[in-house]
Amino acid sequence: MTDTGSSHPHPAPAGCPVHPDAIRLAGLEYQQTPSQLYRALRREHGAVAPVLLDGDIPAWLVLGYSEVTYVTSHDELFARDSRRWNQWENIPDDWPLMPFVGYQPSVLFTEGAEHRRRAGVITEALEGVDQFELARDAQLIAEELIAAFAGSGQAELMTSYAHALPMRVVVQMCGMPTSGDDTRQLVDDLRISLDAAEGDDPVAAYARVGERLRQLVKDKRVAPGPDVTSRMIQHPAGLTDEEIVQDLISVIAAAQQPTANWICNTLRLLLTDERFAVNVSGGRLSVGEALNEVLWLDTPTQNFIGRWAVRDTQLGGRHIKAGDCVVMGLAAANTDPQIWPEAHVGAENAAHLSFSNGEHRCPYPAPLLADVMARTAVETLLERLPDLVLAVEPEELSWRPSIWMRGLTALPVQFTPVVQ
């Protein structure tokens, strides 16, 4: 048995695996003000709370900073292979979270030496991306997107800018065309897979993503180029086509939607917080501070599913059974009062868990590339449209109904029209 040292032990549920005090991770309160729910869960349950996923499937939500760090640092206790889950007999094939937890031969679910091999290929493929060229490409794409709405004096930035920019940058990095119906369908299917709205079919969308990327890998084997996909194909580790497809899905998904939310959440902060709004167009330092503060307070990936207990163990005073699912509460951990006394979150440091932690964290240099995209997007927009303001009251902005991703449904703005 291993313990993180947290106090307030709670007895394990008797008989039924569903804890009697488990909270459903759903509802309007969670969608719009998750920080309040995290505080309530922490008060009632401590650092590890019993929760219910879609279909009332039991899991544990890890709320504490030290506890999330512990889980992500101890792969021998909390591993990534979801086939360990003790709830599979209760999971239907069309379960909405299947794209997150259904085992795939991707880097996300590998462990030990195999994970290091796969992550090494991704790392070296991403290291081949020149950050100065990336910034230049991102700026050119940003200017093209801005030009499309600059003359109108108004825009909805989530769709026309924050989502579109990383999409185009990422597909270009991977060697796909930056526009066209094929690419748009791919990105839309990725969004549905990660952050399905009502009426979406995330399982079918995920299947279509795989089909499109299989074709890309075939094309790049015939005609390689200076892109991430080609470097993965040519790597001496000799990954199979299917391994490359699965790992490309991980790379694109991690780079696109979270970066879009990072951009939009930062723009929201700059446009609604008086600390930044005084001279929003001028200070590059302010943009950097805002980007980092968002990672602490409105991190694009709120919760990450998951880890699975390798054996019975203790975490935060809870008895975790072998095969239990553990959800990493990244947003809750980032605002843990144990690390921020007096409720003051000091956004000046970068010890947040927004890119996770341990061997399975976002591979270097992915966070640096995401920062280049996000910073370029925000700075270019503010430089081109210096009098940018919200077109609605701040309280009218609404968040997407997701417990996993933190992003606005829309960010309407207005500004003085720019004649091209």
From TrEMBL:
CDD domains: CYP_unk. Pfam families: p450. InterPro entries: Cyt_P450 (IPR001128), Cyt_P450_B (IPR002397), Cyt_P450_sf (IPR036396). Coiled coil: none annotated. Transmembrane segments: none annotated. SUPFAM superfamilies: Cytochrome P450. One of its GO terms (molecular function) is iron ion binding. Belongs to the cytochrome P450 family. This is Cytochrome P450. It comes from Streptomyces cacaoi.
